[in-house]
């Protein structure tokens, strides 16, 4: 008999709720929900689950789709003109969230000297996002050199990840305000990236106080530009401990453990922050954290979301997420299956927004890239990970509808919504799924999509 595992992200994704108010007792859900029914038909058994839909949200989260990608140094906004146009058409098919840094990762120094602004490259990226119908998110990182002790008018890209000096926190906040005014249609801003430059080598821990002071200055600046601006942080990497003595006792499991110093930094930021509209994290789920199976390691995403939900009631965003690095004997199907399984774990455990860190196209057959290289004639072609994975998750599993894992067979992981069912084979052998009383053979590492039609899957 198939059963529905009640880990619906709809219970946890919206901000503004009181802890401990969920239908199932999970912390962090939002009261004031209007009940409705949805049905998942698996193995011939009609499973009816009572869920609720949001009727209000003081911290308005991003609208559907909830899925998207971050532009990196090599994206699709430049290169061969025809290739760029091809990419624009492909990405426009399913509008998604698109995030862009203000410096680095494809954007030049926006203020190489105090008051001297250059937004040409950032303008191009933001225009590209608008051309493709994307939901824009700006990552307020990194800082011009003169804010880091460098000489005005120069840019040392080797020091990109250096944090601004405390005496320049106000200058960085002012730059953030300039950015917010320049792109008034942007509503979501992420403050900094992974605590870059905020590690205290003397104390051997994260400088949460320093980051929080920067965050608060930027938060105030953005809200002064427009109170409707949504601000998120701290964008910590929930990394495993390089030193076993820092292994967390609170966030560990068969999947491994998180560095306690990361949790301490998050708690300190959460206590001292001015305000927050959504929390931002990232992390790697790899076998190096103590688990031999790359799919079992993905439970880390669920564990981190559960821990976060005990700390905050605002939406949870994953700005980056990574899985076990590819091994020489892995097929392209294996690589894709692992990432789809990770997306299932993230969605079913309460992530509202999940952003894919877009890699530079390796080739025209890159299994985990989104499009072919626009620098080359004929480039910009959509690749299956864009059309068959990311876009389908955006259409089928937005954060404003219930999304739950379902049990369909051994070795299989499945996610269901009222729109679709996706099944991924996490093994190297054919596995059988039982859906609507039918047996479906799923090939090794295959990802199988079934659409919902009149209460059945097809």
From TrEMBL:
It comes from Mycolicibacterium sarraceniae. GO terms for molecular function: hydrolase activity, hydrolyzing O-glycosyl compounds. Residues 116-352 form the Glycosyl hydrolases family 39 N-terminal catalytic domain. Gene3D superfamilies: Glycosidases. This is Glycosyl hydrolases family 39 N-terminal catalytic domain-containing protein. The lineage of its organism: Bacteria, Bacillati, Actinomycetota, Actinomycetes, Mycobacteriales. InterPro entries: GH (IPR017853), GH39_cat (IPR049166), Glycosyl_Hydrolase_39 (IPR051923). It comes from the Bacteria. Signal peptide: none annotated. The keyword Transcription regulation does not apply.
């Amino acid at each position: 008999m198939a059963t529905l595992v009640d880990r619906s992200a709809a219970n946890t994704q919206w901000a503004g709720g009181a802890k401990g108010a969920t239908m199932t007792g999970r912390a962090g859900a939002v009261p004031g929900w209007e009940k409705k029914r949805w049905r998942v038909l698996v193995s011939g058994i009609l499973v009816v689950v009572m869920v609720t839909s949001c009727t209000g949200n003081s911290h308005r989260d991003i609208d559907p789709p909830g899925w998207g990608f971050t532009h990196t140094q090599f994206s699709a906004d430049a290169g061969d003109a025809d290739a760029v146009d091809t990419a624009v058409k492909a990405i426009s098919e399913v509008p998604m969230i698109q995030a862009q840094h203000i410096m680095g990762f494809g954007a030049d120094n926006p203020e190489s000297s105090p008051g001297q602004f250059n937004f040409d490259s950032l303008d191009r990226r933001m225009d590209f996002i608008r051309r493709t119908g994307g939901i824009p998110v700006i990552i307020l990182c990194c800082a011009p050199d003169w804010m880091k002790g460098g000489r005005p008018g120069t840019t040392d890209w080797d020091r990109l990840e250096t944090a601004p000096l405390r005496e320049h926190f106000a200058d960085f906040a002012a730059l953030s305000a300039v950015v917010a005014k320049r792109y008034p249609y942007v509503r979501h801003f992420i403050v900094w990236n992974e605590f870059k430059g905020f590690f205290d080598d003397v104390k051997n821990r994260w400088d949460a106080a320093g980051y929080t002071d920067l965050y608060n200055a930027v938060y105030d600046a953005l809200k002064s530009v427009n109170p409707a601006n949504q601000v998120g942080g701290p964008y910590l990497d929930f990394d495993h401990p390089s030193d076993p003595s820092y292994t967390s006792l609170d966030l560990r499991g068969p999947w491994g453990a998180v560095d306690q110093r990361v949790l301490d930094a998050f708690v300190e930021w959460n206590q001292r922050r001015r305000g927050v509209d959504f929390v931002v994290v990232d992390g790697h789920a790899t076998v190096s954290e103590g688990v031999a199976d790359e799919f079992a390691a993905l439970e880390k995403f669920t564990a981190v979301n559960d821990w976060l939900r005990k700390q905050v009631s605002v939406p949870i965003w994953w700005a980056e997420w990574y899985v076990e690095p590819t091994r020489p004997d892995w097929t392209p199907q294996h690589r894709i299956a692992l990432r789809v399984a990770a997306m299932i774990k993230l969605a079913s455990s309460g992530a509202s927004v999940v952003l894919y860190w877009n890699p530079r196209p390796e080739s025209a057959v890159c299994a985990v890239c989104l499009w072919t290289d626009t620098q080359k004639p004929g480039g910009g072609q959509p690749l299956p990970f864009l059309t068959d994975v990311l876009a389908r998750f955006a259409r089928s599993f937005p954060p404003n509808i219930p999304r739950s894992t379902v049990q369909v067979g051994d070795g299989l992981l499945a996610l269901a919504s009222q729109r679709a069912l996706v099944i991924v084979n996490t093994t190297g052998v054919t596995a059988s799924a039982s859906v609507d009383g039918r047996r479906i053979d799923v090939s090794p590492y295959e990802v199988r999509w079934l659409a919902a039609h009149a209460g059945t899957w097809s």
